[in-house]
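Title: Prediction job returns without error message
Component: structure pipeline
Severity: low
Priority: P3
Assignee: unassigned

Description:
Job completed but the reporter wants confirmation the result is attached to the right record. Sequence as submitted:
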Amino acid sequence: MNESMIRLRALDSKTSSLRSLVPVIPLHVSWIKTLREALGMTARQLAGRIGVSQSRVAYMEQNEENLKISTLKKVAQSMNCTFVPLFIPNESLESMVRKQAKSKAKKMLASVNQNMALENQLSLSEEILKDMTEELISKSLKKIWD
């Protein structure tokens, strides 16, 4: 097991529980408004806390996905929250790497097979594909993304 895969699996372990949050977080609902209302705070009160107009708060609540990270952090702090920009993998990182490595190995094998077909030595073995995939993963993960 190489060092890259050990780090990848450790990160997978840390992020796997985050995937369960994705269905809980509706994209069409403003978190700013949801938290503000849960705290019993008016838009005017929030505006005063962050130093903007009430209409600006309404705009932020309607256009939350287009706000700058610095703005979201400021709004979060004003409600005693922490804003965390976060990438949540849709599947395990190891699975993504293995799929990509296998795809790269297939392309490499297809290229080799094209040359070998001319010589009547075509190689279609699933075992060769598996070996190539593992070799790509163990030698250099960076190469699989080309």
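Comment from assignee: result matches the submitted record. The radius of gyration is 24 Å.
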